[in-house]
Amino acid sequence: MYRERLVATPVTTPSARRLQQVLLAYHDFRQHKNGHRLLGDTFTLAQWQAERLKATHQDLYNHPGYHTGLEFLLTDLYAPTNNSGRDDNIDRVFPKMVKWLPDNQLDTFAGLMELNLLTQRLDLGLVEVLAATNKDPGALTEDAYCEALRNSKCMEERTRQITLVAEVGRQLDRYVRNRTLGWLLAISRGPAEMADLTDLHSFLHRGYSAFRKMEDVERLIDRLVARETRVLDNILNHHAQPFRVPDEL
């Protein structure tokens, strides 16, 4: 719907250009995904993976200093729902973003959108592998999931996904420590509603609030990366309990 606006917007910095390219790729992917016969299966798979992540990181998820942030990660950043309205609004305000936001914030947003795009691409690829072997995502077992992931042959992309989680998480943590951002979100609620950007504004406000409440984000990210790297290695090596990680991680 807003592809022409993305293409027509002048960009003059590497970060703005990166964001433009990611948003264009994500726009085109969403059109492809929304017409895909396995669209519903991607939501089912996302729900399964969200529950798996909660189980693997249950101690962190239940920790009062981390719970809100991880809940935002699993329900907003990695949500098994359709966020087409929010995503369209991002495309719509792109010209204003490149005009008003500093370059480092554009780069952070580009990383966030790249992570979103990569995750959805991996999910769609995985449900295609499952469908090819007549596996139902609604009755997915750990063994079937691990076999499908190995057969998808996307290990470089999986590693990139973990790297992006770390990069974006650290950048977001730096920005939410800036009280000015909270003030801007507070005073922009009314204008956002008038511009029909309520869902995008709510998403940003939830993310800001979640990260502001988190303790020692650097430590959390280090543990998430170490654990998910171990899980990926476990899957590749046919570990009997691939989603269990040592207590010290």
Automatic annotation (TrEMBL):
Entry-linked InterPro entries: DUF8198, FFLEE_fam
Pfam families hit by this protein: DUF8198
DUF8198 domain span: 29-242
Top-level lineage group: Bacteria
Protein name: DUF8198 domain-containing protein
Origin species: Marinobacter confluentis
The organism's taxonomic lineage, starting at the top: Bacteria, Pseudomonadati, Pseudomonadota, Gammaproteobacteria, Pseudomonadales
